[in-house]
Structure formats: structure tokens, C-alpha cells
Design goal:
The protein has 346 residues and is of the alpha/beta class. It is built from 14 helices and twelve strands. A six-stranded mixed beta sheet has the order 2-4-1-5-6-7, with helices on both faces. A hairpin with a 3-residue loop joins strand 8 and strand 9. Helix 1 runs parallel beside helix 8 and helix 4 packs antiparallel against helix 5. The protein binds guanosine-5'-diphosphate and magnesium ion. The site of guanosine-5'-diphosphate has 17 residues, from helix 1 and helix 8.
């Protein structure tokens, strides 16, 4: 999974990246900085300590930290556009807004960012319309497809001009299919990180201009980045003193998962235990395909135990004896924390 941190200058993106990656802050880098953040999962750590000679293989989130954006004049706006071009393939955006220091206005900053994303999409859609209008009269193989796309692009253009994000304008799978490859920015899911000062930890942040379904994480990036540099013991001590119960990386990743509708299933191998992110609603057959194409091709059954049962009863023998191992078929909907052994035959 790939996410991009988007925010105005000084909103704390680079500090946030340090907080979630545990790496030193790299403020002011000229280009995009990428860090691979392991997804914390206590279940995996439990499995690794209970299954001898296994190492935990955590899922990862690729985080792109963009240089601070500014939209004050044509020059900075053009620079922002070039950066946007480089994040068209990410899965989601994390909008970082400054809520620390003197008189921050996070709601206004968020609106500004959203407006700029809309404008960038409008520009792309308009370019696409020009191109389609030119080629639509030529009898090409793609003519029918082009006509359908042009009609949709005109609808997107009108919607974007009315300040609607593409994800609101798109009405069905068919429309989605037509524009999916363009990487429209306002089609992407997003969440918000409100970067508060040290004195406002634990405060809930509400944005009037934001849909209720959008995840908002409130944290102090500076403090969290300092905490992330410490060894485990002193970190726990400082966190307790500060009243922070969950490290930033856990809250950050949880919100990314919630935004994308992801859950994890777990596998136990000879030398590794592993967490696999899948979309909520994925069936056992497709989950098998994530692990190996052979497992999907030769799928027989998914031997499934809820992690909670395994932890409670202690080991595989005990869960079997208690009748807590289910043999699920291809269409079984995998649940978060399912420990699965795929039986297959190729
Ligand atoms: N006081 C305070 N300063 C912060 C906080 N978060 C970031 N900063 C400072 O703001 C400046 C810009 O942060 P940076 O992460 O580089 O912002 P970016 O431009 O969005 O990448 C740095 O000097 C940070 O130390 C915070 O929560 N509190
Ligand atoms: Mg930065």
C-alpha cells in the first residue's frame, strides 16, 4: 500500500514521517522522500514468540513525503502541480494540517489543499476532453469507448467546476472503469492528520468542512518523532508520563487501513509468521491468491482459526480439540485476524 503525505509548508509532514518511521526528520528535502513503514500488529508478535524459529513478517505502508506545497503564485502552483503528477498512483492521501503554534487555521488549510486537488483534476480532465474531441471523429477501433469516456469527462468537468470531488461525481463501477487509469486525485480516499502542539494532546479535532466518514488523527508530530527515536523502555516511560496510550504509528496505520477498508489475515509458515492486508469482504479464494497463485489455482479448503481463540487456548492442538478450527470453502468471507492454513493441490 502506498500513501502520500500532502500538506502546506511547515504543516509537519516530514516530522510526521519521522514519527511513523522512527527515522530522523528530513525537513527541507528537495524531492519526494519515501519510507517503508512496517504495520504494527501485536498478533503477529504473539505468533512469532509462540511458534519457534519463526520471524514476524509485517505488512508495510510505503509513505511518500512531498516537499511542502504552496499556492501563492504561478511559480509555486506549477511546482505543486508537478508534485501532484508524481502521486497519481498512490492508494490514498494523508492530508497533514498545521494545528500547532500561533493562530493556526487547519480547516482553512484543508480547504485550500482540497481546492488545489480539484483544480489539478479539472486541468487533467479538460486536457483529456480536448484530446477526445479531436479523435472522436476519426473512425478508430476505440470510437465507442471514446464517446462514452468523453460524455463522462464532460460530466466530471461540470462537477469539478461546482467544487465536487470526482469520488462524489462517479456514480457506478462502469464510470469508475472508464477513468480509473487516469489517477484522478479527488477520486482517492483520504484521511486527515491534525498536527497539534504539545499542549493540546488528546484533544479531538472536528472539521466542519469534512465528511463524517473521513478519519481524523490528532497528534503532535514533533513529540511523536522524538518518542519514536527512543528505545522501547524509555519510550514507554515517556508515553506514560505524557498520557499517550498508543504510539503515532499505530494510530496512523489503523486510520489508513480504515480509510481503505483493509483488514489482515495471518499465516504461520515454517520460518515466518505473516500478516496479509486484504480488502474487507475478500473471499478465501482471493485471499489464497494473495499468498501464492498456486494456492488459488489448487484451492481445496481454508483451515481457519480466529486469532483470539488461538491466543486464548494457547496452541493449534488445543484449538483443534476445542473444535475451533473451521474448514472454510472458496466463498468464505475472510475476517480480520483469521489465522489461515490454505490446503491446496496443484
Ligand atoms: N512546536 C511544534 N513544532 C512543530 C510541530 N510539528 C512540526 N513542527 C515544526 O515545524 C517545522 C516544519 O516541520 P516539517 O515537518 O519540516 O514540515 P513540512 O514542511 O510539512 O515537512 C519544523 O521546525 C518542526 O520542528 C509541532 O507539533 N509542534
Ligand atoms: Mg517537509
Amino acid at each position: 500500500m502506498k500513501v502520500a503525505l500532502i500538506g502546506l509548508m511547515q504543516s509537519g509532514k516530514s516530522t510526521l514521517l519521522s514519527a511513523v518511521s522512527g527515522k530522523p526528520v528530513r525537513s527541507g528535502a528537495a524531492g519526494i522522500v519515501e519510507e517503508v513503514v512496517p504495520v504494527p500488529d501485536e498478533r503477529l508478535d504473539w505468533l512469532a514468540t509462540h511458534y519457534e524459529r519463526t520471524k514476524p513478517v509485517h505488512a508495510t505502508v510505503d509513505c511518500l513525503d512531498l516537499p511542502g506545497l504552496a499556492f501563492g503564485d504561478e511559480h509555486t502552483r506549477a511546482a505543486a502541480r508537478r508534485l501532484f503528477e508524481q502521486v497519481r498512483t498512490v492508494d490514498m492521501f494523508v492530508m497533514v494540517v498545521k494545528a500547532y503554534g500561533d493562530g493556526p487555521n487547519p480547516a482553512k488549510d484543508l480547504t485550500e489543499l482540497q481546492t488545489e486537488l480539484l483544480l489539478a483534476d479539472l486541468e487533467l480532465v479538460t486536457t483529456r476532453i480536448d484530446k477526445l474531441e479531436k479523435q472522436i471523429h476519426k473512425p478508430t477501433k476505440t470510437q465507442a469507448h471514446d464517446k462514452a469516456e468523453l460524455a463522462l469527462q464532460l460530466k466530471l468537468q461540470a462537477g469539478l467546476e461546482a467544487e465536487k470531488p470526482v469520488k462524489v461525481i462517479i456514480e457506478n463501477e462502469h464510470e469508475l472503469e472508464l477513468v480509473k487509469s487516469l489517477g484522478l486525485l479527488t477520486l482517492k480516499p483520504m484521511m486527515v492528520v491534525a498536527n497539534v502542539g504539545e499542549g493540546r494532546l488528546g484533544e479531538e479535532f472536528k472539521f466542519d468542512n469534512l465528511d463524517e466518514s473521513v478519519q481524523v488523527v490528532t497528534l503532535c508530530a514533533k513529540l511523536e518523532s522524538e518518542l519514536a527515536q527512543l528505545d522501547v523502555d524509555s519510550r514507554a516511560e515517556f508515553m506514560a508520563d505524557l498520557g499517550i496510550t498508543t504510539p503515532a504509528v499505530n494510530r496512523f496505520v489503523q486510520s489508513c487501513y480504515a480509510t481503505l477498508g483493509l483488514i489482515s489475515f495471518l499465516t504461520i509458515g515454517k520460518d515466518e509468521v505473516r500478516a496479509w492486508p486484504i480488502r474487507r469482504g475478500t473471499c478465501a479464494l482471493d485471499a489464497a491468491g494473495k499468498v501464492h497463485t498456486d494456492m488459488k489455482r489448487g484451492f481445496i479448503r481454508a483451515e481457519t482459526t480466529a486469532f483470539g481463540d488461538l491466543k486464548e487456548l494457547g496452541d493449534e492442538k488445543a484449538v483443534k480439540a476445542a473444535g475451533k478450527v473451521r474448514l472454510e470453502g472458496k466463498s468464505y468471507i475472510v475476517q480480520d485476524g483469521d489465522v489461515i492454513n490454505f490446503r491446496f493441490n496443484v
